[in-house]
What we know:
With 181 residues, this protein is of the alpha/beta class. The protein has helices spanning 21-37, 90-96, 109-122, 148-161, and strands spanning 3-8, 42-47, 75-79, 101-107, 126-135, 169-172. Helix 3 (109-122) runs parallel beside helix 4.
Amino acid sequence: MRAALLIVDMQEMLVPLVWRGEELASRIAALAREARAHGVPVIALRQIGASGTDFDPDSPGTRVSPLLGLEPVDVVVDKAATDSFYRTGLAGLLVERGVDTVVLTGLATDYCVDATARSAQSHGLDVVLVGDGHSPSADGDPVAGLTAEEVIARHNLILATAIHPGGRLRVLPAAEVAFTG
C-alpha cells in the first residue's frame, strides 16, 4: 500500500462552522504529522469560487486552517466542486507519487468528503475514510432531522457498504490508521 493523506476543505472560515471543528483540526493535524513521519504525502484540498464570493480565492477565509500545521512539503490543491478530483490535478499528483490508497479526512461529511470518497474509488483508489476525521455542519442535517453525530454515522455506514466500482473503502478511527510509505 502506498498512501496519501487527503484533507478536504479544512479552511479558516469553515472550521468554526462545523461540528467540533477545532477538535477535528487537531485530530487531522496529528494524522498529518504521523503521515509525514512515514514519508506519506499530505495533500490539502481548498474549496474556491469566483471573485467576490465567500469562496473568493483571495479571501483570507479560504486559506487552509493554520490549526492543521501544514508544512512546506505539503501540497495544497484548489478545487471548485464537491469532488476533489473534478478538474484538479489531484489524480495526477497521486499517480506521480505511486499512491494507491487515500486516507480521507475533512469537510463536510455529507458534501465534499462523500463526493471525494466515491470519486477516489472511481479512479481505482482504495479509500480509508477516517471515521472520526470528518464532520458536517454543526447543526447536522436539520431537514433530514439528523444531528451531526448521526450524519457522520450514516455516511460512515453508507460509504463502507456501498457497492462501487474501483477501489474498496474501509472506515477506521484515527487511532487505528497506520501509514506505510
